[in-house]
Amino acid sequence: MKRLASQLNGFTVLKWLIYLFFFVFLLVPLFSILIVSFTGQPVNIFGSFTSAKIFNSTMEKLSNMSLEAYTSIFSEGNSYFAALINSLQLGTGVAVLVTLIVLPIAYAFARTAMPFKAFFAALCTIPLIMPTFISSHAFILMFGKTGWVTQIYHSFGGEGVLFDVQSMLGIVLVQVFFFFPYALWPMVAAFKISDATLEEASQNLGARSWYTFLRVTLPLAVPGIVSSMLLIFTVSFSDFGTPIILAPKDLNLIVVESYREIAGFFNWAGSAVLTVIMLIVAAFFFWLQRLVIKGREYGTISGKPTKQKLNDHKGTITGLTIYTFLIILIPMLALGSVFLSSIATTWGHQALPDGYTLDHYKTIFSISGKNIWNSMVLAGGTLVLSVVISTFVSYFVVRRGSGGLDFVSSIPLIVPGIALGIALIQTFNTMPLHLTGTALLLIIAYTIRRMPYMIRSTMSSMMAIRKDIEEAAVSLGASNLVAAITVIGPLMLPGIAAGAILVFVTVIKETSISILLAPTDWAPMSLAVFQNLLRGEYYTACAMAILIIVIVIILQSLAKKITKDQLY
Length: 568
Known about the structure:
Blueprint: H1 2-7, H2 10-39, H3 45-48, H4 52-63, H5 68-71, H6 79-111, H7 117-123, H8 126-129, H9 132-143, H10 148-155, H11 168-193, H12 196-204, H13 209-220, H14 222-238, H15 241-246, H16 254-263, H17 268-295, H18 314-342, H19 359-366, H20 369-400, H21 403-410, H22 417-427, H23 439-463, H24 467-475, H25 480-491, H26 493-508, H27 512-517, H28 525-535, H29 538-563
């Protein structure tokens, strides 16, 4: 009894409470959606432990489990199979294109004396601050039938449109130009860590610059490049915002199909099967990415670090500078298009709006003020919950070596937002935990979805704190829990603050979770923008989108100041 009492301290209770949180709101919903994919009917797991009637009903459903829903996918003409193939093709195409496009930019940032690096780096954040469904609408404003690029094209004698933006090609282009920063920074890091003296040796032996790049520089950066490609595939495959706006009716994509099955037809069997498939694909490529990083070592050994000599060839630098600017120009023009639409009286008859007004901003503050308030409250609640859980998860993983918590807290990285939303709806839509349609479940969903980013930030801060500081507090009479809160906590504040801002930013622009789980009374700004676009209220939607982007920019700037982030 005494041994049990000694083990049952504050840290132990806290650790098991965190495990309970992940078990109830992550593991059980994912397991529940797996069961539904076999039964074809909703299963109330929690209710089965509190009601004999629900338990008997659940057992009856389990007795009728079959693989029919999975085998039917491969039947002729099945739309689910077509959706899976289309999504795999989309993810593969986007991953390859992004890799090819980003390679020259990453090399320019890491290995050349290209001017304006800091300026270009700042511009590369533009794609990250725009929600993907806003980026998709921006492409319609640019390349649609009445888009300003199309208008300019017509003025030069062209007919029709440059390309059909509401097509697979349109989705690919939006994802390429707005997902490339996800691949850029890992590639920059890959180029930076490889030993530059090998390139110099190659050139001293008479090799030309292009030959050195292909045979020396590029092979050393292969792990980072392949890892980035797999990451882009996962992001593209799981993206909901772009397809929901640009996918035509005859183009089936798995994220759109799963949303339609649950939101439009309440088809639990179909949505569960599609959710499981999304999880399997995302998990496989996430595992593959980790395998690439850990499986091969491309590092070089050097007695002492050498200062890298940057490529200062004038022709190379000029070409890479122009190329980088042209790639970044597309997201900049997209952002400018959204802004012009937000202040336009009418737009579509010519390249520029017919007139300008601030009425749309007045409208969103007068009519959509509640959506703004909802976003702040929901993001604030998510921030508090994320900070508390993530800080202690980091402590248990770094200080106590808790591999179990490290693994469980990493699971949300492989769960697409639409999949998590469907799993939570199915699990909490009945008693005893009837949380569907409440702000609480929305906050929990946001927390689970974005917590891994917070954990990585706090974990880095935890690793930088010497353990003897905590031991000194304990030796002076403080308990382990008190020492962690009063000594380690304050030292972790920069990492906590940076992670908290990142969570706040991502929640503000979150789309898939909001669309599925947000109740009417708690609709955030991102959902209001989406609904306005569907209703054809494009000008007010753009005004709200600009407000979201401004908030995100301010918070990201604050995060950069807190972390004193110096990339160059």
